Amino acid sequence: MNGGCYLVAWATLCLVGGWATSWHVGRPFTAVWNVPTARCQTHFGQPLLLEPFGIVHNQAQRFRGQNITIFYKNQFGLYPYLGPRGVLHHGGIPQAVPLHKHLALVTSQISGLMHKGFRGLAVLDWEEWHPLWNRNWGPRRIYRKASWAWAQQRWPDLPHKLQGFEARATFEGAARALMEGTLQLAQALRPRGLWGFYRFPLCRSPWRGRHNYTGKCQMADKASNDRLRWLWEASTALFPSIYLPPGLPQVYRKSYARHRLEEASRVARFGHPHPLPVMAYTRLTHLGSGRFLSQNDLIQTIGVSVALGVEGVVLWGDLSFSSSGEQCKLLQSYLSNILGPYLSNVTKAAQACSQQLCHGNGRCARQEPNNDDVFLHLEPASAVGAPREDPDKWTHFRCLCYPGWAGTACKVPVPGTE
C-alpha cells in the first residue's frame, strides 16, 4: 500500500509509506503454522518439532504471536452478527454498529495484544456475512431480512420498494466502512503487519453432478470480486482458502485449488504497485473426517500453491490436535513422515529455482498456469541437502520478481524502491 492519510470515522490515520516488510521478503515460499499446539508441550510433555522442516510458527506454538495472529468474530472490535435463534450481537448487522466505538475498541485490542513491532500475518476471520448484499444467500439471507426490518423502522413512511433500496444501500455502505476502516486503522497502528480477511477473495466452483468440471470460479464471483476493489486496496495480504471439499474427486483437486489461487493473484494486483502477498489457507485434515491429508492431497494443495508462485501457505488446525497426548503423538508422526518432508522438498525446490532462474530476486511460477502436471519438486537426493539441480529443470517456469527488481530473470534493479 502506498503511504498516505485516511479519514476513518473519528480520526485521521497516516500509514507509513512503502511496503510492509516482514519475514516473507526474500523467501520464495513460506509455510506458517496456525495450529494451537502449545498444549502438546505444556500439558503432555510432547513438543512438536517444526523447525527441521522450516515451518514458521509463533513462540511456544501459541495461536497468536509474533508471526501470525488470527482474530475471530467475537474477538475483535464490535463485529455484528446474528446468533442462534436470531440473537443480536453488537446490533446484528453492520448498520447498527457505532463505527467510532468499534474502532476505539480495535485500537485498544491491538495495543494490548500485538507488539508495536509486529511483522507477521494478521488475519481477520469474519465469515457471518458478505459485504455485498446479493452474496448473502442461503443461511446468510437472515442479514438481508434483518436489514430490511431495520430500514422499515428507520423509514416507516417510505414505500416498500424504497425501504428495500435503503436496506441494501445502508448494509453495503456500513459493511464497507466497517471492513475498510478496520484494515486502515490496523495498518496505521501496526504498519509492518500483513493485514487481510480470511477466505477472500471467494471463488465458488460447484462440482456435484457435473461431468465437465473445470474448477473455474463462477462469473458471478469474479464480478463480485471486481466490485470489492476497495477491499483489495485496503488489504496488505490475501488469505484465500484452498480447503478440499468433502467428496471432491481426486481428478478435480488440482484444478480446484489452482483456480482459487489464480483468482487471488488476479485481485492482488488491484490498486497496488506490486501484487499483494497471497497466503493460502490449507488444512491438515479433511473436512468432516479428521483424516490427515495424504501426500497426494498435499501435492494438490500445497504443491499447486508453490508451482503457481504464491508467497506461501497457512497450515490451519483446531484445538483437537492437542487435546490429548495421543493426538500429539499422531500429529508428530504425520509431521515427521508426510507433511514435514513434503514441505522441506517444495521449500528447497522453490529456493533452488529462485536462485538459478531468478537470481534470488524473485520466485518461480508456471509459465502455463493451467499445466497441472508441472510442479516444483526436488529429486529425493537433492531434497536432503543443498539443492544441486540442473538449471534446465526450470524450463517450465518463469520469474515473479520481488519488489525492487524487474526483467525476465529479475536482474534489473528498479530505481526508487527499497
UniProtKB/TrEMBL annotation:
Glycans are attached at residue 345. It catalyses: Random hydrolysis of (1->4)-linkages between N-acetyl-beta-D-glucosamine and D-glucuronate residues in hyaluronate. Keywords: Disulfide bond, Glycosidase, Hydrolase, Signal. GO terms for molecular function: hyaluronoglucuronidase activity; hyalurononglucosaminidase activity. The keyword Disulfide bond applies. SUPFAM superfamilies: (Trans)glycosidases. Disulfide bonds join 40-328, 203-217, 353-364, 358-399, 401-410. The keyword rRNA processing does not apply. GO terms for biological process: carbohydrate metabolic process; cartilage development; cellular response to interleukin-1; cellular response to tumor necrosis factor; cellular response to UV-B; hyaluronan catabolic process; inflammatory response; negative regulation of ovarian follicle development. It is an enzyme of class 3 (hydrolase). It comes from the Eukaryota. Residues 1-20 form the signal peptide. Its EC number is 3.2.1.35. GO terms for cellular component: acrosomal membrane; early endosome; endoplasmic reticulum; lysosome; sperm midpiece. It holds the Pfam family Glyco_hydro_56. The active site is at residue 127. Belongs to the glycosyl hydrolase 56 family. This is Hyaluronidase. It comes from Vombatus ursinus.
